[in-house]
Amino acid sequence: MEPARKVYLQPTPVRIWHWLNAFGIVTLIVTGAQIRFPEYIQLFSGYKSAILLHNTAGLVVAVSFSLWFFYYGVVARNMLKIYVPSKDDLRFGIGRQAKFYLLTYFLGWPNPHHPTPENKFNPMQKSAYLAIMFVLMPLIALTGILLTNVSPLRELVILIGGLKILVAAHFLLACCLCAFLFTHVYLATLGRTPLAYIKPMWTGWEEEEPDRHSHPAA
Amino acid sequence: MTTKSIITMLGALLLSPTSLALAEAGARQDHSQLLVWAFLGMCALIVIIQLMPVVMIAFGLIRGLVKDKAPQPQAQAATDE
Q1: Separation in Å, CA of B40 to nearest CA in chain A
Q2: Cβ neighbours of residue A46 closer than 8 Å, sequence gap 6 or more
Q3: Is residue A162 part of a domain?
Q4: Which one of A87, A103, A140, A195 has the largest count of C-beta atoms within 10 Å of its C-beta?
Q5: How confident is the model over A65-100, as pLDDT tens digits?
Q6: For residue A82, what are the contacts with CB-CB under 8 A and spacing of at least 6?
Q7: Which residues pair with A7 in a beta bridge?
Q8: Amino acid B71: pLDDT
Q9: Confidence at residue A79, expressed as pLDDT on a 0 to 100 scale
């Protein structure tokens, strides 16, 4: 039996960004929950410590986001190719991928998307990551920056609609991010083995799946 | 005597929670700093672990280059003979 071919999908800067982001976002969700509902959630010793950790995690996520932006925008220069779905992706790809996640995965069919360094995300991933990285993350970071600097940015806060609107927006955006996180972790376990998609994010190397054309049912 | 002891006991009872609260507040302050440092430490660990293969490859390349350069004078001497 031939050993599975491996493809280098995740370069070091992307892996560093991903795991800093993951650890930071989980910390933000946990501390944010305590800040939002202090009477019900008391995971950390005090309200003040939750705020301090939340602000630090926010800063780390913002720095790692900048690393991601710099790498794809300046070093690799393939940000648009990787993150923006093509016409074909929108017309056929999303439906094909949704069919795989909802039905054919459970019938044992292989994934219709074969990742390459230049096309590493399937059409559904592209659409989701586009919304998250270019809309959700900048908005949540912006509302977070405003909330941590209310006094110096008072006029901007009032222009947006006041502190209540800002807090509500930050909370709703965080809920969206939290929902994505659960979906992301679940979908990451749908490889040939539960760790097949998680391991490459740590090592950079992904084993190529068997060609779908060789599958009788495909 | 009994009145004095009752007053002392009451005083101790009233003051003991205050001292506990003060101690707790102090501990909380220290704890928050510790949490932040633990978080930053984990972040640093992620970066170091991810950079380790790169450092090892770079180290291997440098060692290879040094090894390649080192035997050259001997090879030259052998051809001269």
Answers
A1: 8
A2: B28, B31, B32
A3: yes
A4: A140
A5: 999 999 999 999 999 999 999 999 999 999 999 999
A6: A72, A118, A119, A120, A121, A126
A7: A206
A8: 63
A9: 92
Whether A53 sits inside 8 A of B28 (CB atoms) is no
Smallest CA–CA separation between B48 and chain A, in Å?
A: 9
Contact (CB, 8 A) for B40 and A63: no
A55 CB-near residues (< 8 Å, 6+ apart):
A148
Q: How many domains does chain B have?
A: 1
pLDDT tens digits, one per residue of B14-63: 444 444 444 444 444 556 789 999 999 999 999 999 999 999 999 999 99
Taking the Cβ of residue B32 and every Cβ of chain A, the question of whether any pair is shorter than 8 Å is answered with: yes
Predicted complex ipTM? 0.86
Residue A55, number of CB atoms within 10 A of its CB? 16
Which amino acid is present at A164? K
Task: Please name the residue of chain B whose CA is at the shortest distance from the CA of residue A46.
Answer: B28
Contact state of B47 with A56 under an 8 Å Cβ cutoff: no
Strand ranges for chain B from DSSP E = none
Which residue in A20, A46, A49 is closest to B43 by CB distance?
Answer: A20
What residues make up the domain containing A160? 7-209
Number of folded domains that form chain A: 1
pTM: 0.79
